[in-house]
């Protein structure tokens, strides 16, 4: 069935360091890959997304890379700040008209000041 | 319109009772989704509406669950004869019609079945 694996489950970095979260998806028909940030007790919020016709996308300190051949995509956060601390979810979608998302299990990122 | 809103935010119910949750999507959004999120997991897809039509249901959605979107605006999710395993955060999301566009999530309804 459809599956998205996400690693690591927890990540602790020092403020100013970079953080990388990796995801692998199973369904080669997926063509939309969003990343959501969820702070404790709050709603998931989109931080960046990428579509299968591009290999990399950057927005300030955040970048996402996509390798469709290997079915891998990754989130890169540079110059981390304490306010980046949250749970990050990757997702895969776009394979059907519903555009439903299959989410990874999440990565708890802790940025130590 | 400040986004997707869900009501109630929290619900505690006794096992065997019925519960109903409401979702008000962003007004111009035709697509509406229900997801369920348990502790330490990502959201899991439950069902999808395009306007008032329910076009997909997950196998996770047992016959105790029913969802409606009668006028293509707000949606309700009802759980009958609740079980402890139903305890979770129920998230609603909406998006415009175009594929591969952002899904905006509500803050969710946290259900606790005791």
Q: What is the overall pLDDT average of chain B?
A: 94
Instruction: Describe the main β-sheet of chain B briefly.
Output: 7 strands, mixed
- Mean pLDDT across all residues of chain A, rounded? 94
Number of helices of chain B: 0
Structural class assignment of chain A: mainly beta
Oligomeric state as shown: heterodimer
Q: Tally the helices of chain A.
A: 0
Low-confidence stretches of chain B: none
Radius of gyration of chain A: 14 Å
Radius of gyration of chain B over alpha carbons? 13 Å
Biggest sheet details of chain A:
6 strands, mixed
Helical proportion of chain B, percent range: under 10%
Global geometry of chain A? globular
Number of strands of chain A: 11
Provide structural commentary.
The complex is a heterodimer of chains A (113) and B (114). Chain A has no helices and eleven strands. Chain A has 113 residues and is mostly beta strands. In chain A, strands 2, 4, 5, 9, 10 and 11 form a six-stranded mixed sheet that branches. A five-stranded antiparallel sheet of chain A has the order 1-3-8-7-6, with no helix packed on it. In chain A, strand 6 (56-59) and strand 7 form a beta hairpin. With 114 residues, chain B is mainly β. Chain B contains no helices and eleven strands. In chain B, strand 5 and strand 6 (53-57) form a beta hairpin. Chain B is globular, with a radius of gyration of 13 Å. Classes of the chains: A mainly beta (113), B mainly beta (114).
SSE topology sketch:
The complex is a heterodimer of chains A (113) and B (114).
Chain A: E1 4-7, E2 10-14, E3 19-25, E4 32-38, E5 45-51, E6 56-59, E7 62-67, E8 72-77, E9 86-92, E10 102-103, E11 107-112
Parallel strand pairs in A: 2-11
Antiparallel strand pairs in A: 1-3, 3-8, 4-5, 4-9, 6-7, 7-8, 9-10, 9-11
Chain B: E1 5-7, E2 10-13, E3 19-24, E4 31-37, E5 44-50, E6 53-57, E7 65-68, E8 75-79, E9 88-95, E10 104-105, E11 109-113
């Amino acid at each position: 069935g459809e599956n998205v694996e996400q690693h690591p489950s927890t990540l602790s970095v020092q403020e100013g360091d970079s953080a990388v979260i990796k995801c692998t998806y199973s369904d080669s028909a997926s063509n939309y890959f969003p990343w959501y940030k969820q702070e404790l007790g709050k709603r998931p919020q989109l931080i960046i997304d990428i579509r299968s016709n591009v290999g990399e996308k950057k927005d300030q300190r955040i970048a996402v890379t996509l390798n469709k051949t290997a079915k891998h995509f990754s989130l890169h956060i540079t110059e981390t700040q304490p306010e980046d601390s949250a749970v990050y979810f990757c997702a895969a979608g776009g394979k059907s008209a519903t555009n439903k998302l299959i989410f990874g299990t999440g990565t708890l990122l802790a940025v130590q000041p | 319109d400040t986004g997707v809103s869900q009501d109630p935010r929290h619900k505690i119910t006794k096992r065997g009772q019925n519960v109903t949750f409401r979702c008000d999507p962003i007004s111009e959004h035709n697509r509406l989704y229900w997801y369920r999120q348990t502790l330490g997991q990502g959201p899991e897809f439950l069902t999808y509406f395009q306007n008032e039509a329910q076009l997909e249901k997950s196998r996770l959605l047992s016959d105790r669950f029913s969802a409606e979107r009668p006028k293509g605006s707000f949606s309700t999710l009802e759980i009958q004869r609740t079980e402890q395993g139903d305890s979770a955060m129920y998230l609603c999301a909406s998006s415009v019609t175009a594929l591969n566009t952002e899904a905006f999530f509500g803050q969710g309804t946290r259900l606790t079945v005791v």
